[in-house]
Structures are given as structure tokens and as C-alpha cells.
Amino acid sequence: MSIKKVLQHVDKNMNMLVNDLCILIQQPSVSAKNQGIKKCANLVKNTLKKSGIKAEILSTKNYPPIVYGEIKSKNNPHKTLLFYNHYDVQPVEPIELWNNDPFSGKINGNKIYGRGSSDDKGEMITRIKAVESFLKETGDVPCNVKFVIEGEEETGSAHIEQYLKKYKKKFSCDGIIWEFGHVDNKDRPIIDLGMKGLLYVELSLRESNMDSHSSLAVLIKNPAWRLIDALKTLRDPSGKILIKNWYNEVKPLSNEDIKILKSFPFNEVEFKKEFGIKQFLGNKKGLMIKKSLAAEPTCNIAGIVSGYHAEGAKTVIPAEARVKIDFRLVPNMDPKKQEIRLRKHLKSNGFGDIKIKVYHGEAAARTDSKHPFVSHVTSAASKSFGKYILSVSSAGTGPMHSFTKILNAPAIAIGSTHVFSRIHSPNEYTRIDLLKKATKCMCIILENFSKSR
For residue 360, what is the enclosing H or E element? Predict the structure, then answer.
């Protein structure tokens, strides 16, 4: 039976997709608060089963459970595609900014509102329904299909690597479709071939056992000043990181990567207007902007806390100061090695007394643009959306490297999340027309992938 019949099944059954998504949205699953996690995991398992997919709950210690789904192909059991998604969502606060109950799954025209509607329950349902469409129309799937759906992505996927190592054989595959994909304001899917890595740390310093009167500033050291002095040694005003050997292992962009970046659309004027800025860091322009987003390491101050910061004045010397920093990493950079370099840098510059707490470390991942898997995905995007944008790498971070390293398979991100769908913000929504296109896209990816050698 042709793929045409499968795609027609998607058209005819969008009401069921929308209904199932609304049910998923209505089940809270906030990993940061451990709210509804186990209930949602069971709901996802049942959703997979209802679609004809064998499903089970995998648990390790007290970590949030993973929902695992699998359907074996009768006619092509030699190729396996894995869909990675997550069922947990961000907290809803500030709740007063929502127009409706954050877990209502309210439908208004072409949009479905609610936390998780896009990130990531909307994306997840498109993959499930793509498989269901094949099973309903053909009684089979073009290749083996696996689902790995985790419950702590929104808090950093702290234990996904343990799951991957424990269930490496069960999760084995030949290609991975990542958990999300953005669609730009011209309805073109952005296909990301990779993700940056991350080293997230907190620097802290305590100079006295209590806050003190600021008249004593001639005698008592202020930890905020010392942290500021330390921060100034980390990077220059253009954003270049000054830590010794920081860039040693950075993988340069290939000629093919640069070709992709040159064709990648980026509206500088629109971007500046959106964020209310006049110029970019280091006065970047043109191709350099796109190179930086895809392949430049960063050093960012995510937050500083010290002393009095409420309304009005209070003359005080704070006893302690803390700063959170995130370093974005690119391929070949090892977060553990970068942490060692940071520690050596602070010590050699006279800041060995500053404490360093590591919150998270994740290496970068990138699939070669010439890998055959890329053409399977781009061809599907072209057929289902009519157009697409190929991206060397997302500027964001996720556990893609853990998957590609442990499972030894390429990973590509493509999905249905509109760039203005307010993910992580109040009034998050997904568009029904994009859900339909993404579901069809997943069907065609399965078909294309099954025919590859």
C-alpha cells in the first residue's frame, strides 16, 4: 500500500490526534515539582498501547521513569528508527498571566493552549500518530520503531545517560529523530543537525559571617567586588573567553557547514527589534552572526545574587556573593576538561578561594550534513511542509550527545513547534495545521528511512 493512503489516514484522523493531545495536556507533569510525573508516564504508556505500540515503564532507582515503546517491522526488521521525546513540562508560573487554566488543553480555532502543548507533548503525539497511521492502513511499519520518552528533560535530563547505558541494547537503533523542531514565521521547518553542549556552574564566596554596616567597607572585604574582579578575567568585551586552552579542541566548521550557514536566513533588523537591542555583541554582522549561533562557545552570566536588592536603600556589606554562569560548548569540547581549565584559571589569577559548584555538564553533538540520514529527513520535510531550512546546529542544549555517543547513531531535530508558540511561557500553544504537517513528515521519514541501506 502506498504512502498516499497513510497520509490520507492522517488527514481523516486529526480529530483523534487533537483529542489525545488535549488529554495529555490535561495531565500535569511538572518535573521541577515532581507533580504528576508517574501519572503522566502511565498515560503516555497507555497512549502508545492504544495506537498499537508495545509499551512499558522503565525505572532506575528513584529517577523519573522512562516510557519505552517499540513496534517491530514484519517486512523490514533490519532498520530501526528511534523517536526521543519527553513527557515532563515546565512550571506554569506566573499563573496569573495565563488566559485559561494552564492544563486545560483549550482549543481556539487553529490553536491548542496549555503547558506542554508544544513542548513536548505536541511533538510526541505527531510521532505516535505517524506510527499508528501505518499500522491502521498497512498492518505494519516500514522499519522497526522505538520510543524513548523521558520525564526530566525540563530539569536537565540528569539521569538520561544512566538509562542509556543500562538499556543500551534495548534502545539500539540506526537513526534518532530528536524531541523537537522549530517552524519559522514563514512556516518553514528548521532542521537542526546538532546541539551545543553546556557547562553550568555557580561561583560563590563568603568573606564574613554576617552582613555588616557599609561604613566598615574600609576594613571588611566585599565578596561582590571580588567576584566581579574574577568575572572580568573570564572573557573580553567581544565575548572571547580568556581561559587558557579553552578553544583547544574546538571543531572548526567544514566548507559544507559554511555553505549551509550562508543559505540560512537571518533577519538582523527583525531580530534586533524583537529583543530591543541596537547592535550585536562584538558588533557581529552577516555570516559571523550565523557562525556564532551555530559554532561559537559562550560564557554567560545567568544571574548574580549578593547583598540588598529590594526596594529602597540599605547600606550594607554583604557577607556572601554568588554568580551562576553557563558556558555553551561546541563539538569536541569536554565539559569535565573545561571545568578543570576554569578551576586552574581562577587559581592562577589569584581567585583560588572562590568555590565552584557544577550543576550540569553536557557535550555538544552534530550530525554530518553529508550523512544519508539528512537527505531522508530533508526530503520528507520538503514533501510535507513544501519547504525547509537546514541548520548546522541549534544554539541551545540537550542530551543529544549522550544518545549519539552511547547508541552510535545520528540524531536530527525536526518538528512542529512554531517559533512564537510561547514555550516555557504563559499561554503556550501549538498549531493544529503544523501538527498535521509534522505527523505527515514523520510518516515520510519512516518510509524514506526504511528504503536506505
Answer: strand 355-362
Side-chain half-sphere of 322: how many Cα atoms within 13 Å? 6
Q: Is 390 helix (H, G, I), strand (E, B) or coil?
A: strand
Q: Which of 176, 74, 180 is nearest to 438 (CA)?
A: 180
Kind of pairing, strands 365-366 and 80-86?
unpaired
C-alpha cell, 310: 529590594
pLDDT in tens, 357-412: 999 899 999 999 999 999 999 999 999 999 999 999 999 999 999 999 999 999 99
pTM for the structure as a whole = 0.91
**Which among 137, 124, 95, 146 is positioned nearest to 11, based on CA atoms?**
137
Q: Are 56 and 63 in contact (CB under 8 A)?
A: no
What values do phi and psi take at 363, rounded to 5?
A: -75, 160
- Classify the phi-psi angles of 187: left when phi > 0, otherwise alpha if psi is within -120 to 50, otherwise beta: left
Segments of the chain with pLDDT less than 50: none
| Distant-in-sequence, close-in-space partners of 346: CB < 8 Å, separation ≥ 6 | 203, 230, 233, 352, 354, 356
Burial 304-337 (b: 16+ CB within 10 A, else e): bebbeeeeeeeebbbbbbbbbbbbbbbbebbbee
In this structure, is the dihedral angle defined by the CA atoms of residues 18, 23, 28 and 31, taken in order, positive or negative?
Answer: negative
- Within 10 angstroms of residue 18's Cβ, the number of other Cβ atoms is 18
Asked whether 96 and 425 are in contact (CB, 8 A), the reply is no
